[in-house]
Amino acid sequence: MLFLFDAWQAVSNGLLRALKDAHATMLIFMLGCWGVGIPLAWLLSRHVLGPTGVWTGMLAGLAVTALLLLGRFRRMTRLMQAGQYQP
User: Fold this and answer.
1) How far apart are CA 62 and CA 43, in angstroms?
2) Between the N and C ends of the chain, which has fewer C-beta atoms within 10 Å?
3) What residues contact 57, with CB distance under 8 A and at least 6 apart?
């Protein structure tokens, strides 16, 4: 699962950077990795799952990042189709 979400976020990141939307990708990465992944990994590894919690937390962070990046790409392409987005 980790590789699947990592591939999704990598492709989405590249697509958004091609649309000149690098600032939003940086903020999404900060939210997903630093805001979700690391705190959840710490919490799960210390109190619930032990070492497996680190991987579970990082998987959750990557999943959040991938889904937010895909959502952002979908929104940007809709705006482009409507003629409301200028890079």
Assistant:
1) 16
2) C
3) 37, 38, 39, 40, 41, 42, 43, 44, 45
User: What is the block-wise mean pLDDT of the chain (87 residues), using blocks of 10 residues?
Assistant: 91 92 91 94 92 94 95 93 81
Instruction: Give alpha helix (H) positions in 1-87.
Output: 2-18, 22-29, 38-47, 51-81
Three-state DSSP class for residue 82: coil
Longest dimension (CA), the chain: 50
pTM for this entry: 0.87
22-29 and 51-81 helices, crossing angle to 10°: 150
Q: Tokens 């990042």 identify what position?
A: 65
How many angstroms separate the CA atoms of 44 and 49, rounded? Answer: 6
Structure tokens at 10: 């990598």
